[in-house]
Amino acid sequence: MTAGLVLVALILTARYTFRRAPRAGYLLVLVSIGWLLVDKTMEGATLVTFSPDRGLTEGDLVGAVGIAVGLGQAWPDLTQRWRRLVAALRR
Asked: Coil, helix or strand for 90?
């Protein structure tokens, strides 16, 4: 049941943070990481097997896409923070 609630939270977060302020992408990344931590009961089929007990599943793709979209949305903020850090270190 927890995985289902986190999945609903992930879908709603993706829907309502899409094309919002770059910092909204951070929330999507956090919820996506939460999904990757609790998705064991809803993983689906194994797409790629790395070892007998490790692999990439359909459920993992949901979290990966959420992280990618969130980072893409937060990218302007991340680059701006990086530039400020580099400028401060050069002083």
From this structure: helix
- Yes or no: say if 86 and 39 are a contact pair by the CB < 8 Å rule: no
Amino acid (one-letter) located at 12: L
Residue 56 corresponds to which tokens in the numbers above?
A: 């990439």
C-alpha–C-alpha distance, residues 11 and 15, integer Å: 6
pTM of the predicted structure, to 2 decimals: 0.82
Alpha helices in 18-57 (DSSP H): 24-38
What residues form DSSP beta bridges with 46?
A: 57
Distance CA 88, CA 68 (A): 28
Taking every pair of C-alpha atoms in the chain, what is the biggest distance, in angstroms? 53
Write out the chain's pLDDT in tens, 91 residues: 888 899 999 999 999 888 888 888 999 999 999 999 998 888 888 889 998 888 888 889 999 999 999 999 999 999 999 999 999 999 8
Burial class of residue 87, CB neighbours in 10 A (0-12, 13-18, 19+):
exposed
